[in-house]
């Protein structure tokens, strides 16, 4: 195999239209300087001695030949992309959650995770919403933005939010009849620290805007006379 | 009982239906019983049914079908824009537009302001009631 180039080869033959180059074969021969290479090596193209091939391992004949030809399924080369983010949702936007435990809460958007879900935080001190993932479809984006520049979000991705895998317990007879104690899972300390770190600079920039803290603490609800299709968010 | 606002050349009207909804236009000519030729500084002169127009109190002094330049000069002279924005009708429309464009945060701040004002009013009222009762 020829040595790999550091930069990919840029074609010296620009396309006039797809499939038709600007220069003919003879012109390209001249452009690439093949005449100079030939002249340097006395009228002959330099050839590398064929590299010795590694001896191929002796293949054993298979033990079993299937009776029918089984079709191999076609390869799937599709790599899913994260969901397209609505143009109204940018880092620092205040979102209104529409479903779930925190429905109606106004929350700050941090970033989109590789799975497509939105990473969001209350901040926790203001409205009790922790660092959480939320789907774009269950969210209204308002036009209010919060300054998010002081926050480091690199350590958060989908793996951070994966559920803890519990070790499987062997079912013994004694354990069957014992009342299974429901131990409330405590939140690990490092997650609490992460929450505080993210919220620290956020809360500072929120307190800079009058009434924004109270706004984030309040829940959104439709009142009499409010028509969602006529409201501007 | 009698009519107060007449269709005449120079009558300023508000468009209440169609593509130019909400615009102020000037009647520059009458086409027939139902239609008028209508013009505004920012639109191409064209016909409009009277049913699409609501007459205002403002008139300007123009000849029949004036050139655009003359129309604009006459509108500046009569100061149509300020007269409209100071009239109660014009002010109402401006307030409606502002309310419709309020952001969710704006609506929250508005609610806080309303509560604050109501609180102040109630305090004053309580004071007056107390004075009267004694």
UniProtKB/TrEMBL annotation, chain A:
Where the record annotates domain Large ribosomal subunit protein uL6 N-terminal, the positions are 3-61
Annotated Gene Ontology cellular components are: cytosolic large ribosomal subunit
What the entry lists under InterPro entries is as follows: 60S_ribosomal_eL6 (IPR000915), Rib_uL2_dom2 (IPR014722), Ribosomal_eL6_CS (IPR049633), Ribosomal_eL6_KOW (IPR041997), Ribosomal_uL6_N (IPR005568), Translation_prot_SH3-like_sf (IPR008991)
Keywords on this record? Ribonucleoprotein, Ribosomal protein
What's the family? Belongs to the eukaryotic ribosomal protein eL6 family.
A Pfam family the protein falls into:
Ribosomal_L6e_N
Per the UniProt record, the source organism is Hibiscus trionum (Flower of an hour)
- Report which superkingdom the organism of origin falls in: Eukaryota
Could you tell me what this protein is called? 60S ribosomal protein L6
Single GO BP term: cytoplasmic translation
Q: Where is this region: Disordered?
A: 45-75
Instruction: Note the SUPFAM superfamilies from the entry.
Output: Translation proteins SH3-like domain (SSF50104)
Q: Where is the composition biased (Basic and acidic residues)?
A: 60-72
> Which CDD domains has this protein been placed in?
KOW_RPL6
Q: Name one GO molecular function term.
A: RNA binding
From TrEMBL, chain B:
State any GO BP term from the record: ribosomal large subunit biogenesis
Pinpoint the Large ribosomal subunit protein eL14 domain residues. 45-117
Q: List UniProt keywords, sorted A-Z.
A: Ribonucleoprotein, Ribosomal protein
Task: Give one GO molecular function term.
Answer: mRNA binding
**GO CC annotations, alphabetized:** cytosolic large ribosomal subunit
Instruction: Tell me where on the tree of life, at the top rank, the source sits.
Output: Eukaryota
Classification via Pfam families: Ribosomal_L14e (PF01929)
List the InterPro entries.
Answer: Rib_uL2_dom2, Ribosomal_eL14, Ribosomal_eL14_dom, Translation_prot_SH3-like_sf
Query: Could you confirm whether the keyword Ribonucleoprotein appears in this record?
Result: yes
Its family remark reads: Belongs to the eukaryotic ribosomal protein eL14 family.
Q: What is this protein called?
A: Large ribosomal subunit protein eL14 domain-containing protein
